Amino acid sequence: MYIYRDISGLQKHLDKLRIEGGTIGFVPTMGALHEGHMALVTQMNDACDHSVVSIFVNPTQFNDPGDLTRYPKPIEDDIKKLYDNHCDIVFIPSVDEVYPNGAEPDPQLGFDGLDERMEGQFRPGHFGGVAQVMHRLLTIVNPQRLFMGQKDFQQSAIVKHMISHYHLPVKFVTCPTVRESDGLAMSSRNRMLDPKLRDKTALIFQALRQAKEDIDKKSVADIRERAMKTLTVPDFRPEYFEIADGITLLPVKDPAAHEFIVACVAVWAGDVRLIDNMIIRG
To answer: Which of 46, 114, 172, 254 is deepest in the core (most CB within 10 A)?
Structure first.
């Protein structure tokens, strides 16, 4: 496994691989890797000849400086996991390497309203930072295939939009969410949870699953109300539970009028913010 911290060395290596032929796959991460990330690496290895994983905690997508400071950075453990899971190349750049001219998002890139709801409402500026770093990383790596998890459903929609906007020659591959045995979506933030609250986090999956069961039986308003009630327990603070169109992310009023529906949720468990989603239809 090769490790690069500079763009020049990485690109020289990738240029040689392109001359030799074969498909280059890419998984972007912010580190603190878990089994969900390893599932992405496995799927990438199965589909591509060469695998690249980046570890970069992008400061421009954190609207809370304290959240950036607290974000876990177990880099040596991450490197070992990638080696054990047969990753070919790891890219671990500094902020200055990624943003040599400063970190100003592209003011010309709009999101057609995809950033105005759910995460966008509670994390202003977040998706501008996501699109910015993804455009930069895709420009650096120039893979044929990009692998990202379904857990960050709205983020994936933003990245797909950015790829289309810039006409980037990469195929977006969505990989299923990997869950703990009780349904909690695997996340780098899970390691920050208060152990006393860990058992309660299963309520998130339960609320999503109940919404899926109720989509053809109850009104959307009743589904949302039930979910928010389920999640409103001591030390939990739900921010939103939305039933949205899976393409536009607009709120669903009449489920019968939509072929692709997703339920999305964000909850504070103590001082850790967790997000999740479930495909309801489609």
So the answer is: 114
Class of domain 2-175 as given by CATH: alpha beta
Dist. CA 95–CA 56, nearest whole Å: 8
Interacting residues of 194 by C-beta distance below 8 A, sequence separation 6+: 235, 269, 270, 272
Residue 92 to residue 166: CA distance in whole angstroms: 25
Model-level pTM?
0.92
Could you name the CATH architecture of 188-275? 2-Layer Sandwich (3.30)
Whole-angstrom distance, CA of residue 137 vs CA of residue 110: 19
Active-site option among 13, 37, 50, 126: 37
Token couple for 118: 């759910």
The helix or strand, by DSSP H or E, that contains position 65, with its residue range, turns out to be: helix 65-70
Query: Which of these, 262, 149, 272, lies nearest to 200 by C-alpha position?
Result: 272
Residue 161 annotated among the catalytic residues of the structure: no
In the chain, residues under CATH classification 3.40.50.620 are: 2-175
- Cα separation, 262 vs 252, in Å, equals 9
- Mean pLDDT in each 10-residue stretch from start to end of the chain (282 residues)? 97 95 95 94 97 94 79 92 98 94 65 81 82 94 97 93 93 96 94 93 97 96 97 96 94 95 97 96 92
Residue 261 structure tokens: 């529906």
Buried b (16+ CB within 10 A) or exposed e, 138-153: bebbbbbbbbbbbbbb
Where are the CATH 3.30.1300.10 domain residues in the chain? Answer: 188-275
CA quadruple 161, 179, 258, 237: dihedral sign: negative
Q: Cα(first)–Cα(last) distance of the chain, in Å?
A: 38
